[in-house]
Amino acid sequence: MTDLSHPLRSDAAQAPRSAATRSDRLWTLAGVIVAALTLLPVLSLALLAAQPTGDVWTHLVGTVLPRSLWTTFLLMAGVGALTLTLGVGTAWLVTMCRFPGRAFFDWALLVPLAVPTYIIAYTYVEILDYTGPVQSVIRAIFGFTTSRDYWFPEVRSLGGAIFVMGFVLYPYVYLTTRASFLLQSACALDVSRTLGAGPMRLFFRVALPLARPAIVVGVSLALMECLNDIGAVTFFGVQTMTFSVYDTWINRSSLAGASQLAVAMLALVFALLWIERHARRRQRFHVTSSRYQALPGYRLGGARALGAMIACAVPILVGFVFPAMLLADYASRRLDELTSPALVSAMTNTLTLSVIASLMTVVIAIVLVFAQRVRHNALTRVCGRIAAIGYAIPGTVLAVGILIPLARFDNMVDAFARSTFGVSTGLLLVGTGTALVYAYMVRFLAVAHGQIEGGLGKVTPHLDMAARTLGRTSGKVLWEVHVPMIRPVLLTALLLAFVDCMKELPATILLRPFNFETLATTVYNAASREAFGDGALPALVIVLVGLVPAILLARTSARSFRDRGSARQAG
């Protein structure tokens, strides 16, 4: 008699396997869709730029493009040099030197990240302008009566923009360089000391070359933010590529010309990314010793300790304390405006947009990272890299690329509704803030993706296999196993995405619906009217909310290195 049990058992075993395979393929499909949504603005921008623009492009190439390119280059060179000096110098001091206040400076040097560059720009114009406190004190001390009696640098200039952006963006370099210094092998530094290397020689010949990849990453991040800025450069009168895209679109009413400038700017961004990757393509350093040792430190005293304290205090004072004091002073005079309808509306709009966009960003980042975990192949890896390029796309460029497909979709739906039902649907996506949410998601997906990828990477794959053996699908494995384990990482990613959405200015200015204001646009409009006091209260709200992830990032970073050191020492 034929035994039918084996075929039956085989079919029963194949059923969950085929179901799991279908589920895994769905995760891959989701990753492809996310990558396509990220690429859509870039593709639409390229298509629009290919359209004829008449004499507009000739005019842009002959007058606007060369000047804005040169100005952008000078701005990036200045900001890169200043952030490099401040970030690397302070990272070396707090990592390798022992002096009073070092533990405080270790995390406080990250605080300027809480303040958007455009707010710092507005405050320093108030501080350093002719009627500001600095020049007023100079005139009072020396008896000057007019500006012709003395020389003072013009703050509304390229130099002023470099100064402001450098002191706001240096924490990117500080964070990555400090992490590299902390991870460097104590044995390598000890050997250098044994061979007679002093502090300066140890820094330039050993520590700095080892930290070069991290330094390049930090400077690249700072330059990306520099390229994205529109508020500070507009206020300082610096015509960068970002300003030219905005000016061509809004003031010249040429969306096609703006898209062509945006493509040129995007080429500059990708060239910067290529240079960054090419510069560190062969730079791989590994710790070969399994024995943990505390990094050798230089104990400073007297004038050297005072110099180290001043060197670490100046970036904090310039990048955060002075602007925050001015904002607090102006805002304290307008506390009655906290309940004004305009401010309440701006706060509500900001909160609504930021919450929706940050939640969507984190959910999509989870889908993308988990797709790479479930189906670890070339396709999912490429999707992950594509989704991460959004952070490198400036907000103005992103806004141009998003407006085209969404506006055409709105027009198609409206035309269909008119012809079929005799009613107009209006701008369903562009007119309701959906375009802004989409822009925020594309722009800050890389932030959430990096956080979640790091957190999920620490979960052993054995848990996945155990859960799948118990009959759980990949979706249930994610929801029941991974999400509870990485909840702190998810909250951190959500907070970082929320604050980034709240501070974003370029995309918000260009994609916001009519009569729709956020805290960022309220500050920008007040500064554009030379009435910065009117925007002090919303600016202070942005700064205070931005302080939370900055401090959290500093504390989390310091704690992770302490835990890593304890684990190595125990091992």
Describe the structure.
The chain has helices at residues 5-49, 56-96, 102-108, 117-128, 133-142, 158-183, 186-194, 199-228, 231-236, 241-250, 255-279, 302-332, 341-374, 378-387, 395-421, 434-457, 461-469, 474-485, 487-503, 506-511, 519-528, 536-570; strands spanning 97-98, 298-299. The protein is mostly helical and 571 residues long. A two-stranded parallel sheet has the order 1-2. Helix 2 (56-96) runs antiparallel to helix 8 (199-228). The longest helix is centred in the N-terminal third of the chain and has 45 residues, at 5-49. The chain is globular, with a radius of gyration of 27 Å. The termini are far apart.
The strand count comes to 2
N- and C-termini, Cα separation: 62 Å
Strand arrangement across the biggest beta sheet? 1-2
Task: Kindly report the average pLDDT value.
Answer: 80
How large is the radius of gyration? 27 Å
Q: Which stretches are low in confidence, meaning pLDDT under 50 for 5 or more residues running?
A: 1-15, 286-294, 564-571
What oligomeric arrangement do these chains adopt? single chain
Morphology: globular
Major sheet summary line: 2 strands, parallel
Structural class by SSE content? mainly alpha
* Topology pattern, helix = H, strand = E: HHEHHHHHHHHHEHHHHHHHHHHH
Number of helices: 22
Percent in helix:
over 70%
* β-strand amount: under 5%
Strand-helix topology:
Elements: H1 5-49, H2 56-96, E1 97-98, H3 102-108, H4 117-128, H5 133-142, H6 158-183, H7 186-194, H8 199-228, H9 231-236, H10 241-250, H11 255-279, E2 298-299, H12 302-332, H13 341-374, H14 378-387, H15 395-421, H16 434-457, H17 461-469, H18 474-485, H19 487-503, H20 506-511, H21 519-528, H22 536-570
Parallel strand pairs: 1-2
